[in-house]
Write a structure and sequence with these properties.
This protein is 22% helix and 34% strand. It is of the alpha+beta class. The protein has one domain: Jelly Rolls (Sandwich). The structure holds fe (ii) ion. Fe (ii) ion binds next to strand 9.
């Protein structure tokens, strides 16, 4: 289940707020300029669907978002459970960074945690199936796919060539609970 945990950036041991409720997650993220939506789960997709089938299944929502925000291109990224040697890939985006473009992801299957740093706090969002998140350009953030990554996500871009990570060299990410720790929380009562 999707989950949002908000902690002070200098006190990762303090939980200011935690919610699993989609409209509450969206409202809290809106305060820092982040778009969060849950798209209807009415698309029956096989686990091994190809990118064209996935994009076609969500064509209406994607068209709306592209029209609203001007995104030019969409693609699909998938990491299946059991993929070998994922540690370097995990580590890269586990370091705090920024992009000059929005980072937009819609989760078709699996999960991952986005960490958004704004206003002296860190917003950890556990995104799962049917969750859309859009991280505005220049927002400090990082992403944890977990020790055994498994996800399939649609990515939207304004300019795919411009989507490069600029690392802040701030070690903040290491102090915060991992995606796997948050998944344990999100499965809780
Ligand atoms: Fe990023």
């Amino acid at each position: 289940m999707s989950l949002l945990c908000i902690r002070p950036e200098d006190r990762p041991d303090v939980l200011d707020e935690m919610t699993r409720e989609g409209t509450r997650i969206a409202a809290l993220l809106r305060t820092i300029g982040v778009r969060f939506e849950r798209w209807p789960a009415d698309h029956a997709l096989a686990a091994n669907s190809d990118p064209q089938t996935i994009l076609a299944a969500y064509a209406a929502e994607l068209t709306r978002l592209q029209r609203d925000c001007g995104y030019q291109t969409a693609d699909v990224v998938r990491i299946v459970r059991g993929t070998p040697d994922t540690a370097p890939m995990r580590q890269k985006f586990l370091n705090e960074h920024r992009h000059s473009e929005d980072e937009v992801r819609f989760f078709v299957e699996g999960s991952g945690s986005f960490y958004l740093r704004a206003g002296g706090r860190v917003f950890q969002v556990v995104c799962e199936r049917d969750d859309l998140i859009s991280v505005p350009a220049e927002t400090r953030h990082w992403f944890d796919m977990g020790a055994s990554p498994h996800f399939c996500a649609i990515r939207l871009f304004n300019n795919i060539e411009g989507w490069v990570a600029r690392f802040t060299d701030d070690p903040i990410a290491a102090r915060f609970p991992s995606h796997d720790e948050a998944l344990a929380l999100s499965a809780g009562p």
